[in-house]
Amino acid sequence: LPFYPGSGLRRGDVVRSIDDQALDRVSQQPGGPRAGDVLMYTVERGGITTRISVRLAKSGPMAAWASLNWPALLLAASLLGMAVQVFRRRPDDPAAVTLLAIAALGGVGVPAYVLGGQVIDLAFGRDLGWQVFGEACLTLMWGAWLLFVLVLPDPFRSTRVRRLLALCGGLLVAMYGVYLLVVLPGSPSVAVTRWRLLETSFIPGYVFPALIMAVAAARFLAARRTAAGLYLGWLMAAFTFSGLGLYLIWQLPVTI
């Protein structure tokens, strides 16, 4: 559960009911609460059950999120600026096009992932369009990163690029299918089922960084004695550093 300043809810709270109704029963009600309504959440916090009144806001806390996550915004803006400059100089290069796609997809997907879907949205199945769109962008971003290391620095060959694009897309679809087969049978509630259906980027976020580092290393070893070897070496070093940082700073703490 994301931390929304002023809501009374905290990161790690487990919502058990809303207005004394289990989430599955809430989801069966027609209509639903509106912005400005005050709801009573029953949550577990640190092993203690407590009741918290929550007033539904008219819009998401984007300003609060931006102030807490300004490094991510700065990184996204820097990546977009670099991608635009590279694309302007080499518009026919598939790597430049892919880099531009990475910057655009990540700029949308990361905020959607951090903000997350709120319990009330998941319970009623409403207002999830932004989350669905953001997760799709984040998922495609991982495929674009893999495509980037596959096509750099080869000259433009449309047939080969299309085949690699199909390969990346097929991997994403296959991972999502396996993920649903594993997690959906054990979903304890309708709200959890909806959340798991939204998590298209969950498995790629763990698998693709390692896959990307492996592909970059293989490309470097194959071309290390060529003119492109130096560039691929720097690329592999950058992916290794950022991939390890992702696992150690983001994925590992979330998992444990």
Question: What would your notes on this structure say?
Answer:
The model has no long low-confidence stretch (mean pLDDT 80). The radius of gyration is 21 Å and the shape is elongated. A hairpin with a 2-residue loop joins β3 (38-45) and β4. A 4-stranded antiparallel sheet has the order 2-1-3-4. α3 (70-89) packs antiparallel against α4 and α9 packs antiparallel against α10. The protein has helices spanning 23-26, 62-68, 70-89, 94-115, 119-124, 129-151, 158-183, 190-198, 202-223, 229-255, and strands spanning 14-18, 21-22, 38-45, 48-55. The protein is an alpha+beta fold and 256 residues long.
Poorly predicted parts: none
Helicity, as a percent range: 55-70%
Query: Proportion of β residues?
Result: 5-15%
Largest sheet: 4 strands, antiparallel
Q: Categorize the overall geometry.
A: elongated
Brief characterization of the structure:
By secondary structure, the chain is of the alpha+beta class.
List the helices and strands and how they pair.
Layout: E1 14-18, E2 21-22, H1 23-26, E3 38-45, E4 48-55, H2 62-68, H3 70-89, H4 94-115, H5 119-124, H6 129-151, H7 158-183, H8 190-198, H9 202-223, H10 229-255
Antiparallel strand pairs: 1-2, 1-3, 3-4
